[in-house]
Specification:
Helices cover 62% and strands 9% of the residues. It has 26 helices and nine strands. It has a five-stranded mixed sheet. Helix 1 links the parallel strand 1 and strand 2. Helix 15 packs antiparallel against helix 16.
Length: 548
C-alpha cells in the first residue's frame, strides 16, 4: 500500500479474523480498492468456523459494503473465498475455459484438483444479490468497532451452514455462452452443481458432528451424500480429493491391507472408498483378501453385497453383526438392514402391497442404496399407476435428493389422478407449488415474477420480499425440511425485523432442531414486537422451562 502501483489481483489468506481483525475492516478494504487496476479483483479468505452467524454476516457485510459486486465461493471443507470487483460479475465461457487451460494457471489449478472449469463454477455459493440479502441489517467491522475481534464461538454454527446449503444460487446467469453451446454447457453445469450440493451435505455432517465420538457413524452418513455426488460427477478430481478416494489413496490402503489384512480401520477405509465410487466388484475382491474375525467394516460390505445380489438369507448374519457395533449409527443401520431382509423375504414368499413396496424403497433410499430404492419405487408405480401413493412417496424421495424436475413430474402425476381425499389433494397442490417455486428460483434467482400454481392461479415470487420468504419457510415446514425453513425465516426477519410471524416460526424451527437458546431469543423478540400475543408468551415460557 506504500507504492503507487495498481494491481489486477489482491489476494490474502490471513489467520482467523478474530486474530487479525485489522485485515477484515472497512478501512482495509478501502485501501485495497484504491490499489485495484481497472478490471481487477480482491479475493479474501472467509472462515466459516468460530463465529456466530451474525459475526459471519458482519464479515461478509464489511466486504460487500466496499465491493458491492461480490460473490462467495466454496473451495474446500476449510476454505471459502469472497471475490470483489469494481464491475458486475460477467464470465465469458470460452475465455474462462481458455484461461484455465493456460500455463501456469492449469498446473496451479491441477495442484489443488480444481482444473475442471465446470467444477470451479459449480462451487459458486452466493452472488451480490444473495450477499446483500443475507447481510441486510447487520453492521460493518471497522477499526473503531471491531465486532469480529472478540468472538467466543468455538465451532461451526448450523445457521451458517444453512446459508451455505440453501441460500445459494447458480453462476449461470452471469455466463456468456455461444448459442450453439449454451444448452450443453448449462446441462453439464447443473450436474456439477448437483454434485456440489451433495458434497456440501456431506460436509455439513462433518462440521456439525466434528466433536461427537461416533466417528464411524459420522463417516457412514457422510458417505451416503458423497455417493450421491459421485453419481453426478464420477470423474471430478476435487471430489475424489475431498472424499479420500483418489488412486493414490486406494494404493495406500491396499498396501496397508497387505501388511495387516485383519486391520479393521484399513478395511473400513478401503471399503468406503469403493462404496462411494460404486465399485462393488472391487469390494467383493477385497473381501477375499482380509483375514481374521469379522469386523464391522467387512460385515457392512458383505451385507450390502448380499442385498445387491438378492441373497437375503446370506445377508442376515452380517446385519446382525452390525447391530453389535460400538457405533450407535451402525447399530441402527444393522437394524434397518434386518428390517429390509425381513421385508424382502416376505415379498419373495407372498408379495408386497404398494405401501409395503414404498416403505421398502424408502429404507433402501435412506441407506444410500438409491438404485435399489428407485427400482422398487418404479415397481410400485407399475403395480398401481392409478394410485397417488407411489407417485407421492417417490416424489418426496426425489425432492430430498434435490432431483426437483423429476419430483415435480411425480407430484403433478399424482395430482392428475382422481384423488378422493381433499386434504391429500391440498397437500399435493402445495407440494407442486413448492417444487415449482424452487425450480423458478433455480433458473432465475432474483427479481419478482409470477408463476402458475397447481390450482391454476398465480403465485407471486419475490425473493426480496419478507412475506414471500415467510410463506416459503412455511412450505418447507410442511415438508419437514426444518433447516431449509430456518434460513427462509431468517431472511424474512433480515428484510423486515418487525415480521412477528417469521420470528415465531423461526423460533419453532430452532426448538425442533434442539437450539433452545436461539428459540428463546426469537420468542423473546416476538413478544416485544407483539406484547398482546399470549400464545407467544406461552411458547416462550415453555422454552425457558425446558431442561437442557
Amino acid at each position: 500500500f506504500r507504492t503507487d502501483d495498481r494491481y489486477d489481483l489482491i489476494s490474502f489468506n490471513a489467520i482467523h479474523p478474530s486474530h487479525s481483525p485489522a485485515l477484515y475492516t472497512v478501512e482495509f478494504y478501502e485501501e485495497c480498492k484504491k490499489k485495484l487496476a481497472p478490471g481487477g479483483a480482491v479475493c479474501a479468505w472467509v472462515p466459516n468456523n468460530s463465529f456466530t452467524e451474525e459475526q459471519f454476516q458482519i464479515l461478509l457485510k464489511t466486504f460487500v459494503s466496499v465491493f458491492p459486486h461480490s460473490s462467495m465461493w466454496y473451495v474446500n471443507p476449510n476454505h471459502l473465498v469472497v471475490i470483489g470487483t469494481l464491475d458486475e460479475l460477467a464470465v465469458d465461457w470460452d475465455e474462462f475455459v481458455a484461461r484455465a487451460a493456460q500455463e501456469p494457471v492449469r498446473t496451479e489449478l491441477e495442484n489443488y484438483t480444481m482444473n475442471d472449469p465446470y467444477q470451479l463454477l459449480a462451487y459458486h455459493l452466493m452472488d451480490e444479490n444473495d450477499l446483500a440479502l443475507y447481510t441486510k441489517g447487520v453492521p460493518v467491522n471497522s477499526d473503531a468497532k471491531p465486532y469480529l475481534e472478540y468472538s467466543r464461538e468455538l465451532r461451526t454454527r448450523p445457521e451458517i451452514i444453512d446459508a451455505m446449503r440453501f441460500h445459494r444460487s447458480s453462476i449461470a446467469p452471469y455466463l456468456t455462452i455461444a448459442p450453439e453451446d449454451s444448452a450443453d454447457v448449462i446441462t453439464t453445469l447443473r450436474e456439477y452443481e448437483a454434485s456440489a450440493y451433495h458434497l456440501l451435505e456431506a460436509q455439513t455432517i462433518r462440521w456439525i458432528e466434528a466433536n461427537l465420538p461416533d466417528e464411524f457413524g459420522r463417516i457412514w452418513r457422510t458417505d451416503i451424500h458423497l455417493g450421491e455426488a459421485f453419481r453426478e460427477t464420477p470423474d471430478d478430481p476435487n471430489l475424489h480429493a475431498i472424499g479420500g478416494s483418489r488412486p493414490e489413496d486406494e494404493a495406500r490402503f491396499l498396501d496397508a491391507l497387505r501388511q495387516a489384512p485383519d486391520n479393521s480401520v484399513v478395511q473400513w477405509n478401503l471399503f468406503r472408498l469403493y462404496r462411494v465410487r460404486g465399485e462393488w466388484d472391487k469390494v467383493a475382491e477385497t473381501l477375499t483378501k482380509i483375514r481374521g474375525r469379522e469386523t464391522g467394516a467387512s460385515a457392512l460390505a458383505r451385507v450390502m453385497l448380499s442385498l445387491r445380489a438378492g441373497e437375503w438369507a446370506e445377508a442376515r448374519p452380517f446385519a446382525n453383526r452390525l447391530t453389535q457395533e460400538h457405533s450407535p449409527v451402525l447399530q441402527a443401520v444393522g437394524q434397518q438392514f434386518n428390517t429390509i431382509i425381513d421385508t424382502e423375504i416376505a415379498r419373495s414368499e407372498s408379495g408386497l402391497g404398494v405401501e409395503g413396496l414404498c416403505d421398502l424403497a424408502d429404507r433402501y433410499w435412506v441407506l444410500g442404496m438409491r438404485e435399489r430404492g428407485e427400482s422398487l419405487f418404479r415397481d410400485a408405480l407399475a403395480a398401481a399407476p392409478d394410485q397417488e401413493l407411489p407417485h407421492l412417496r417417490f416424489a418426496r424421495a426425489l425432492e430430498a435428493s434435490r432431483r426437483l424436475d423429476e419430483a415435480l413430474v411425480e407430484f403433478r402425476t399424482a395430482l392428475a389422478l382422481p384423488v378422493e381425499r381433499q386434504d391429500m389433494r391440498n397437500f399435493l397442490q402445495r407440494s407442486v407449488d413448492r417444487i415449482a417455486i424452487q425450480i423458478s428460483l433455480r433458473e432465475a434467482p432474483h427479481g419478482p415474477r409470477t408463476i402458475t400454481g397447481a390450482r391454476g392461479g398465480t403465485i407471486a415470487v419475490d425473493p426480496a420480499d419478507s412475506g414471500f420468504r415467510t410463506d416459503m419457510g412455511k412450505r418447507y415446514l410442511e415438508a419437514r425440511q426444518f433447516e431449509r425453513a430456518s434460513i427462509e425465516f431468517r431472511l424474512a426477519v433480515g428484510i423486515d425485523p418487525a415480521n412477528v410471524e417469521a420470528r415465531v416460526e423461526l423460533a419453532r424451527c430452532y426448538a425442533v432442531r434442539g437450539m433452545a437458546r436461539e428459540a428463546e431469543r426469537e420468542f423473546r423478540i416476538a413478544t416485544e414486537l407483539a406484547p398482546n400475543r399470549d400464545d407467544i408468551k406461552s411458547e416462550l415460557k415453555l422454552i425457558r422451562n425446558t431442561p437442557g
